[in-house]
């Protein structure tokens, strides 16, 4: 097993940039030359191109993925005390926005194979105060949107898709239609954080919807609550995607499907090496969604995860834990409704998951070094 000369990264943004450097550098320089730094032509062009890619009527760019969730909930008119159901196994931003707006986060467990929100658990959690469901398309594939949309229709609920990790993924509905992740519910939200599959070189986000009236409201909220300058019809926020980031995203959007193919090639390599290993469970693929592999996350059985990470780190191989603590056990979200043991799948996952390097620039020599090192420890 030979150590690779190149430093192994969880996400290798530098190597990815080097492949598109001339286009990116020229695009940035064009924005600087134009001095149209805010809401310039690049933002409008990116918005139109992303609408076409997603086959959605409206894309509303904003400053980051957390803002996207907040603006979406504000636009839907959710009021303090309204209950919003989301997954316990997710990044904190999903619940953070719910709490920040004075809404009541209602946490539910996930399914163990795909890590996505458990639809049966959602149904059990619905009360007369429930107003919305926030499914998280975790690690790169969609939650069970057919079932979630049926529940939403039955109970007259909004569906806000947290699509920060699965942009570009396809959802295959039972009626034979295919839609892009984030375009199925009432509204979808994404992040363009640099490490995302479609990432900029700073912060950025966007909201998607096919509802004309909602889109107009979301645009207004994202711009200080104004649709006409200095005329404020609602309370809003200041949340903008700047022109330089939009210019970069336009270039990277053209390669998004190619990036997904490269990520799937990496995932297939990992799958083959770890297949049928008694102590390693590879990520499952949902029957209704393809996978764009924002993360490649293993479940470890009877393995000292801390020791394994230390062993890999000594070999200059990074490995991350997404996520080490369930939301219901985080200090900020402690709630008398929940206690340890209430979400057994999430709690087990938090204790056993480990993500390996996953990005578009991994070559076979590097993958062999990573997998040989894992297997050297996990016998």
Structure description:
The protein has twelve helices and 14 strands. With 379 residues, it is of the alpha/beta class. It has two domains: 15-253, Aspartate Aminotransferase, domain 2, CATH 3.40.640.10; 256-377, Aspartate Aminotransferase, domain 1, CATH 3.90.1150. The chain has a seven-stranded mixed sheet, with helices on both faces. A three-stranded antiparallel sheet has the order 12-13-14. α1 packs across α8, α2 runs parallel beside α8 (243-253) and α3 packs across α4 (93-100). The protein starts with 12 loop residues before the first helix and ends with a helix.
Features:
39% helix, seven-stranded mixed β-sheet, 379 residues, alpha/beta, globular, 2 domains, Aspartate Aminotransferase, domain 1, 12 helices, Aspartate Aminotransferase, domain 2, three-stranded antiparallel β-sheet, 15% strand
Brief overview, please?
The chain is α/β, with parallel strands linked by helices. The protein is built from twelve helices and 14 strands.
CATH topology of the largest domain: Aspartate Aminotransferase, domain 2
Strand content: 15-25%
Q: What is the terminal separation in angstroms?
A: 16 Å
Number of domains as seen in the coordinates = 2
CATH superfamily of the largest domain: Type I PLP-dependent aspartate aminotransferase-like (Major domain)
Class inferred from helices and paired strands? alpha/beta
Specify the overall morphology.
globular
Task: Please tally the helical runs, counting DSSP H or I stretches of 4 or more residues.
Answer: 12
What is the CATH architecture term of the largest domain? 3-Layer(aba) Sandwich
Oligomer: single chain
pLDDT averaged over residues? 97
What order do the strands of the largest sheet run in, or round the barrel if closed? 1-9-8-5-4-2-3
Order of helices and strands: HHEHEHEHEHEEEEEHEEHHEEHHEH
Q: Largest sheet, if any?
A: 7 strands, mixed
What's the β-strand tally? 14
